[in-house]
Amino acid sequence: MSASAIDLCRALLRCPSVTPQDGGALGVLEAFLKAAGFATHRVVFSEPGTPDIDNLYARIGVTAPVLAFAGHTDVVPVGDPARWRFDPFGGEIAEGAIFGRGAADMKGAIAAFAAAAADFVGGHGSGYAEGKGSIAFLITGDEEGPALNGTQKLLAWAHERGERFDHCIVGEPSSRARLGDTIKIGRRGSLNGTLEAHGRQGHVAYPERAANPIPLLLRLLAALTAAPLDQGTAHFSASNLEVVSVDTGNPAFNVIPAQSRARFNIRFNDLWSAESLAAELRRRAAAAGGRTDGVGYDLTFEPCNAPSFITEPDAFTTLVAQAIRDKTGLTPELSTTGGTSDARFICAFCPVLEFGLPGATMHMVDEHVAVNDVKALAEIYKAVLERYFQPAD
User: Fold this and answer.
1) pTM score, whole prediction
2) Which residues partner with 295 through β-bridges?
């Protein structure tokens, strides 16, 4: 199994699948799964103003329970290829590591769980050989992009076909320092906002004829950030607002600008929804005295498709953690840290965990993962399958 995981990982890395291009990656995976006996479907989704995205759904088995593996073959741009030690789409192996864009995020994990599933099915694993379950794959090419034509629509498409999932593992690079040290059981939400103060342009020598929007903008930003949004919850850290830009677009020293704008992002926990969080920030801005003579403001928010979510630890969490312990000797931390992932869509359909390779080099120049980690991850995924489909005594 380990050799096929490495070979499949290298084949996937050789596909230049920078969002929204597939680069042949889904075809490589589809061929591998078909050879293992999976029925496969390629589905293209569209959205006005966004590129069409190819997705892959695969399944073997016709009965419940259904364990799904989910992930994405698209990757972020490589930057300057000349700065890479090897061709970023070469899948080279050196010093015990596989190099390439997407090795950590997350072609290595896709290769590991595909190889594990093929080995499990081919070996007539405990329980599965008796027809006591099914394995499914949900693979998109739109996770690193807008995430409009990927997993969210693939889930809806599958649901309309009558597909149901009992549990799901997403192969995002959840591990921190060592393979197996962390399982993601949820994610914080993400909300983007813009605060724009409007004034009246004029000469700095005649401030009485103008209305400077910058003092208002600063006062409002202070009001939004002065008090903590919360103190955190049992599984989440405190919600956090970060101002990411402040801009007037004013190149002159002798002109009071007509407007000034700030943009911010909030990573929020399960105490909030996007709507309740926006309402709280509007309340804080209004309480700060948001309007003065000649100056006003607008506080707006981008549409949010990234709510916070939590999969409460249960027997499935214990099963996955035990498989990790048996292979690595580590007891994984249950975490909700990090950015967003497609698990935010899957949680509406079934309990979902994220477990994959260490992500120390993801999105970086010379992205790479240890060969032994890919092999070990495949063995862990296979152990999960064996436990999951083990017949009841």
Assistant:
1) 0.90
2) 292
